[in-house]
Automatic annotation (TrEMBL):
Entry membrane topology: Single-pass type I membrane protein
Lineage: Eukaryota, Metazoa, Spiralia, Lophotrochozoa, Mollusca
Pfam families in the cross-refs: ATG27 (PF09451)
Name listed for the protein in its UniProt record: Cation-dependent mannose-6-phosphate receptor
Transmembrane segments: 189-207
Domain of life: Eukaryota
Location in or out of the cell: Preautophagosomal structure membrane
Biological processes per GO annotation: protein transport
InterPro entries, alphabetized: Autophagy-rel_prot_27 (IPR018939), Man6P_isomerase_rcpt-bd_dom_sf (IPR009011)
Keyword flag Signal: yes
Annotated keywords: Membrane, Protein transport, Signal, Transmembrane, Transmembrane helix, Transport
Annotated signal peptide: 1-29
Cellular-component GO terms for this entry: Golgi membrane; phagophore assembly site membrane; trans-Golgi network
Primary residence: membrane
Length: 254
């Protein structure tokens, strides 16, 4: 009985290791691969393109938008193409600090620094790096024809991280009829690691079985390496399933 108990415990650990390994290797995060400073391609081929809300005349599409935290800051943003606003020269995002009698302008993001990333695998963020500053634009897909930019501003005072939220139909992904080919398309890193581990596991059991037959003169199932551990794991799983079926039948009778 003690041997069976030990085998059962070992089988439990064996199954838990398999489950956690699977979760680790297949927990790939979402990605939107950057195409240019205002568009990216999702894992499923969908493309998000903000070029329809980008001016080409050197000015900002979103101009002089007040933030919700202070009354002194106004922001300018133009996806895709750089613009110039007073002291902000060739930028993607500009912050105006209103002062009397004059305002001061700060570069808070350039086009070449643009990056796309998913926050919590849910919200897509378009970020920019400026002079000692960062601008984060969270993109929300809506069916509204009006493009609405809300400037949150500097949520943490002194952080020089400025938050915005864009709600627009242009923040929605569209799917081209002929999706562009992707370099490096194929198996993900998780699948490659899994296949390598599977091959090594099969090789281990094959070599171990041959060794047990040739050198230990084992026969039948006893030739399989760690057969007691495997049987213990199977018994544990079978026992769990039996308990669930029994509990379900008792609940149904009640």
């Amino acid at each position: 009985m003690a041997v069976l108990s030990n085998c059962s415990r070992e089988g439990q650990w064996f199954m838990l290791c398999i489950i956690f390994s699977a979760l680790f290797f297949f927990a790939d995060g979402k990605e939107c691969k950057k195409i240019n400073s205002c568009s990216c391609q999702q894992d499923d081929g969908g493309i998000i393109d903000l070029s329809p809300i980008s001016k080409k005349d050197g000015t900002a599409w979103f101009s002089s938008v007040k933030d919700t935290i202070t009354i002194a800051n106004r922001f300018y943003w133009n996806p895709c193409i750089s613009f110039t606003e007073e002291a902000c020269v060739n930028v993607a995002v500009c912050r105006e600090e209103s002062m009397i009698p004059n305002s001061t302008y700060y570069d808070v993001g350039t086009q070449d620094s643009a990056f796309f990333i998913y926050r919590n695998d849910a919200d897509l963020v378009l970020g920019y790096q400026g002079v000692n500053s960062t601008t984060i634009v969270t993109l929300y897909c809506t069916g509204n024809a009006v493009d609405n930019l809300t400037v949150i501003g500097e949520s943490i005072e002194g952080s020089a991280i400025y938050n915005m939220e864009l709600r627009s139909i242009h923040a929605c992904a569209f799917y081209p009829i002929y999706p562009p080919s992707q370099d490096g398309s194929g198996l993900s890193a998780g699948w490659v690691v899994f296949i390598v581990l599977l091959v090594l596991l099969c090789a281990y059991f094959l070599v171990g079985t041959v060794y047990n037959i040739v050198y230990k003169k084992a026969e039948g199932a006893d030739a399989i390496p760690h057969i007691a551990l495997i049987m213990g794991g199977c018994s544990y799983v079978k026992g769990c399933c039996s308990k669930q079926d029994k509990s379900r039948s008792q609940y149904s009778s009640v």
